[in-house]
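Re: export button greyed out
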Amino acid sequence: MNPIPGRESNLERTVLNPLRRTSMQFYFILAGLGLVFAFGVAALINQWWLGLGVTGLSRPVYWGIYLTNFVFFIGISHAGTLISAILRVTQAEWRRPITRIAEAITFFALILGLLQIWIDMGRPERILFPFLYGRFQSPFLWDFTCVGVYLMSSMLYLYLPMIPDLARMRDRMTDAPRWRRWLYSAMSLGWHGSSEQHRRLEVGIGIMAIVIIPVAVSVHTVVSWIFGMTMQPMWHSTILGPYFVVGAIFSGIAMLFVFMTLLRRAWHFEKWIAEKQYDYLGILLLVMSAFWGYFTLAEFLTTGYATLTNERAVLQAKLAGEYAPAFWVMLAGNLIVPSAILIRRKGRTPTGTFIASLSVLVGMWVERFLIVAPSLTRPSLGFMPAVYAPSLTEAAITAGSLALFALLFLLFFKVFPAMSVWEVEEGETIEAVRRKARELAQAAD
Amino acid sequence: MPRWGMVIDLDKCFACQSCTAACRMENNTPVAGKQQANMGRAILWNEVLPFSEGDYPNVVETMIPRPCMHCDDPACVKVCPVQATYRNEEGTVLIDYERCIGCRFCTVACPFQARYFNWFTPEWPEALRAHLNPDREVAPRPKGVVEKCTFCVQRLRKAREAAQAEGRTFAATDYVPACVETCTGHARYFGDLDDPRSLVSQLAASPRAFRLQEEMGTKPKVYYLKEG
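Workaround output, generated via the alternate export path:
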């Protein structure tokens, strides 16, 4: 779609506005997030200085909050794959205004996820060792490989569909500072919207969309196998792979809802991110909630029915022991609250889905925690009662990580457009053509 | 090549924990202090652990000394991403402290809870600092790496060097870990499991012999002789 020279459409003006002007409110939010992030960095430096002893970890609970955060962030990264790739492959038109946000979430969630592993390492300066001395026998190597491939693919998958928009920025934002004009120019790779360029772009995007789906599935499966391949009670479960993938898509959609609702409100995208997006995506969230509930039931019932002592002990901890409150928070957050809101069409509004999504994000974080910690507190060897009491360091680093995630996301969308302008325009054209065709068909009868 | 293994006779062991103390002095494991030990962070390569069976008043408590099992199919070696932990040709599972990245996957994979992590830089009270073992192989580890029982592999090296210096062939009986040497009740035996004439291989075949968590399939090489 070539823009009409000299006259900006409503869509263009709305999408470019945040790139041109920054409100006082935005600076306050940046400052707040920056403060939380700084707090997290201070805690991390303290941890590097003194050692991992500043956390609440101990024997046998060698893994805790940081691994929980790792699984949580990698899970969130499935937002982009689902919306951008799967909905593109199935040609669901309603995805168009939200693909950019979804793809950005994926990219930054992966970075934050990898950061958590680095934060958890006892010798962080040896971060390159898995690349230099890696052994493929270890599930950690499967992880690094798959997440690495996913990171590269999602970066490409974020960049390719942005090229026509970057060209648009290059042409429209002539009053922007020099570095930005140079950036848009360089990144748009000489795009001028010819049909040959479009054809090539569509092929590229099409290939990426198909390739990235198995990559994403492999990513969260191998993340689950870090736990599944050990012999710890309630970790060594064959269902863990699919369980994690379902949970990832579930939390990914929730994160997408949160960010798209916030941006929509702040930057006035209401005309494009509208009823249809909330209705259909809301139904998807409800469906994923049901899927998650099914897998959780399968897992708990199988463990609870048989009498394997070491597995029963972990289940007891979750259902009736010190982890029972967390268990109920998880059920409420993942099943009860989202179903209550999303099952009726009237609940699938921006406010309703925002609340349901926050509830899911809390529920899913707790679910990851309940996978990591309780199994370690009840080792099969049996003799040691163990308590895991997370410390302030872990809380600060978790908060700092979430703040960094939001910061990266917001700063990204201060430089690049938050909606895919050319794809939304393409969708509007397709819709107009279809409407016209229907009218003509009716008139012919 | 010898395949080193250990047998512990639970009829002779009376849980005096000299083995634990000797191991600490031989291998320079740090003193965690009361608060850290209560958190479960004490590094004790050899530990005497209580196993309770039954409900009060019919409780049977067994005290079992637990060094590293040096499994023949170790779960820890399998999951290490950088090959910092490895099983050498003599069946001993060792750790390269210069390679370990402190990810703690091995500590989480071990079914015997035999691996430990340096949560802080190791410290000793004044009185013990003068008595650290000067052998470079057991130099204090840095913070952030995993460590565990090595069957006192530095003693093996010294025994081999001594045999060579004295111009005789090294025999498997020339070397024992510190815990075996110190055991007050003479309950611990050590030697080559592959030598049918050695005491350990004969005891390991005894009807009283069992191993902890055999069903895990890691093929531990520390055998116990049942009480009674």
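DSSP finds 17 helices and no strands in chain A. The button fix ships in the next patch.
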